């Protein structure tokens, strides 16, 4: 959906100007591309860097950079849970903010070294290349506050893809109190 949104922003009609094959299992798209299917592929890491390392492709653009801040990761809770457990939610959000503070105050090499144990199947050089790419793209915000502009962008993307039956007001669905407190 994000890819099609970016295409439309650049006056390319995804239905008539190109052919998008969505029949390939998401986990198999890099292998299909390496095997000769398609001229382009959309990959998450570490698959994009692996394609480059094998000489099978090159990263030519970032959907995240070209789309704007799309909230790829958001946490949801029932209102009853929020009301009953604000201290747990604040502690959780504070911990996530510490992670944001870390990535915004350390080099890609330091970040890669600290997260490497979580990615045992990926060598340190690859992790460093991935983190450097994200670092250079300004992927990480400095806080966790889910801004209204990002919420509107997400709804625009969903709407243009035909996946949104109605828009929801930002204030109805988004609670930023824990992120704002953590950012202090």
UniProtKB/TrEMBL annotation:
Q: Please state which protein family the record places this protein in.
A: Belongs to the bacterial solute-binding protein SsuA/TauA family.
One GO term describing the cellular component: periplasmic space
Checking SUPFAM superfamilies in the record gives: Periplasmic binding protein-like II
> What keywords does the record list, in alphabetical order?
Signal
Q: Is Signal given among the entry's keywords? A: yes
Protein's cellular compartments = Periplasm
Please report the name of this protein according to its UniProt entry: NMT1-like family protein
Entry-linked Pfam families:
NMT1_2
Per the annotation, which location comes first and is thus the protein's main one? periplasm
């Amino acid at each position: 959906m994000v890819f099609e949104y970016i295409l439309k922003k650049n006056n390319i009609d995804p239905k008539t100007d190109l052919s998008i094959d969505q029949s390939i299992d998401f986990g198999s798209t890099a292998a299909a591309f390496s095997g000769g299917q398609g001229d382009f592929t959309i990959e998450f890491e570490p698959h994009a860097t692996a394609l480059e390392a094998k000489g099978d492709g090159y990263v030519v653009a970032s959907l995240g950079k070209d789309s704007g801040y799309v909230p790829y990761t958001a946490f949801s809770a029932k209102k009853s849970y929020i009301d009953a457990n604000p201290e747990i939610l604040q502690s959780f959000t504070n911990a996530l903010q510490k992670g944001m503070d870390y990535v915004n105050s350390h080099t890609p090499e330091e970040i890669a070294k600290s997260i490497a144990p979580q990615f045992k199947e990926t060598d340190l050089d690859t992790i460093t290349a991935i983190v450097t790419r994200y670092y250079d793209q300004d992927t990480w915000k400095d806080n966790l506050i889910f801004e209204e502009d990002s919420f509107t962008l997400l709804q625009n993307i969903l709407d243009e893809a035909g996946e949104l039956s109605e828009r929801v007001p930002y204030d109805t669905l988004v609670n930023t109190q824990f992120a704002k407190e953590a950012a202090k």
